[in-house]
């Protein structure tokens, strides 16, 4: 069994060997992977769903993960009565600049976090486990440049149980990806 490149995990395996542990859209994305790194470099780590939230997670699996973890959030952009969904990926110790960078990038008058039911229903993933790998291909995927520059990133697996550890550079290759400097603002 390979060891995880970051964190203290007892169970780390190549994601293609764990398709049954992933939600359908994530498993499909891994199965059809055509990225610049082999799919075997996408590592699935089993984790306790009760401690999936970042602060508790890093306390249990390694404090260094705070600098190497990313969050994927779903946002809604509204303009002229029209509304559209997008996803944003930022390092966990930052927050998404929804009212600035996101709103401008989407050309929206207003941008906000999507309601949980919308985010989970439209993505096919569980709240607290949404990942950019396997999101609808027609969604814009806004990725903070700092995520792409991180050698290995811990991100959701589509479920609250389990995470993926992937090379940061793959986020720039995902469908709809736009890399934005400053998408993640320092947390207040």
TrEMBL record:
SUPFAM superfamilies: YbaK/ProRS associated domain. This is YbaK/EbsC family protein. Residues 49-167 form the YbaK/aminoacyl-tRNA synthetase-associated domain. InterPro entries: YbaK/aa-tRNA-synt-asso_dom_sf, YbaK/aa-tRNA-synth-assoc-dom. Signal peptide: none annotated.
């Amino acid at each position: 069994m390979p060891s995880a490149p970051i964190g203290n995990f007892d169970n780390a395996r190549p994601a293609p060997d764990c398709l049954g542990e992933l939600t359908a859209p994530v498993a499909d994305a891994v199965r059809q992977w055509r990225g610049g790194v082999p799919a075997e470099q996408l590592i699935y780590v089993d984790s306790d769903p009760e401690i999936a939230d970042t602060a508790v997670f890093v306390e249990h699996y390694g404090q260094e993960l705070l600098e190497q973890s990313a969050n994927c959030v779903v946002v809604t952009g509204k303009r002229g009565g029209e509304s559209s969904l997008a996803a944003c990926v930022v390092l966990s110790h930052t927050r998404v600049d929804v009212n600035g960078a996101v709103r401008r990038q989407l050309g929206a008058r207003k941008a906000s976090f999507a309601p949980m039911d919308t985010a989970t229903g439209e993505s096919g993933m569980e709240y607290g486990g949404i990942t950019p790998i396997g999101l609808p291909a027609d969604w814009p995927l806004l990725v903070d440049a700092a995520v792409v520059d991180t050698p290995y990133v811990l991100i959701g697996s589509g479920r609250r149980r389990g995470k993926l550890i992937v090379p940061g550079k793959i986020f720039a290759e995902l469908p709809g990806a736009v890399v934005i400097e400053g998408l993640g603002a320092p947390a207040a």
